Amino acid sequence: MRAQRIIDRPQAEIMADRKRKRTELLDKLRRGERVNNDINVKIKRLHPDAKIPAYATELAAGFDLVAVEDAVISPGDTVKVPLGLAFEIPPGYVMLVCMRSGIALNTKLRQPNGIGVIDADYRGEVAMMFDNIAVGHDVPVTNDLVFYVNGTGRLAREDEINASYIIRKGDRVCQAFIIPYPRVNFEVVTELAESERGAGGFGSSGVSAVIDGWRKVIEGE
Question: Considering the entire predicted model, what is its pTM?
């Protein structure tokens, strides 16, 4: 007997409306028309100095979020940096909080959870988390230095730990995206449809790439 899928009515309506809008958007793109896929999102300031999220450029996909407090992240530490804002995300959407590429390139700061997921029913303050992964040869030994998120540094004071990173109030510390997501209905079966790949994983597809009919081998991997 085939398993019966149960979908609550409000969620079914949201999915149908999203599918209709996606179809309309694709039709406009095929016709070469300019599209507007803006959505309205309510935000609440939880700190007097909280900054309204802003896009750095006209076609930027993510908007920047700004620290509302100073923070110091010593080597090996994990610190939560408050952003001073709460969001009312529309049903059917999720907000993803991500590293800024400049911070990832120029510093030893990393986002410990890989990506921050802000659900539509969360009403608390959104924050950014950082790990300072500077260890061993990453830590200068000739001079005690501390660094900023743009990669610049200065001599450390007596009360500061070598190779710490300083977040300053007003720094753009992360970027975020608000995107639609499908609500998945799971169906338990005894067999799954076969595919060419099957159960292959963990590098089973190899590391070489085919470019213009020629196979280019990536050396050293």
Answer: 0.75
User: Is 71 strand, coil or helix?
Assistant: strand
* Band (28; pLDDT cuts 50, 70, 90): confident
Q: Please state the rounded mean pLDDT for residues 94-107.
A: 95
Task: Please state, in angstroms and rounded to a whole number, the distance separating the CA atoms of residues 183 and 110.
Answer: 30
Mean local confidence (pLDDT), 195-213 = 72
Tokens 């067999």 -> residue? 191
Give the three-class secondary structure for 210. Answer: strand
Q: What are the beta bridge partners of residue 54?
A: 64
H/E/C letters for each residue in 11-61?
HHHHHHHHHHHHHHHHHHHHCCCCCCCCCCCEEEECCCCCCCCECCCCCCC
Residue 215 burial class via C-beta count within 10 angstroms: exposed 0-12, middle 13-18, buried 19 and up:
exposed
Residue 95: both structure tokens together: 């907000």
Mean pLDDT of the chain: 85
CB within 8 Å of 42: residues ≥ 6 apart: 87, 88
Question: What's the token pair of residue 170?
Answer: 């007003």
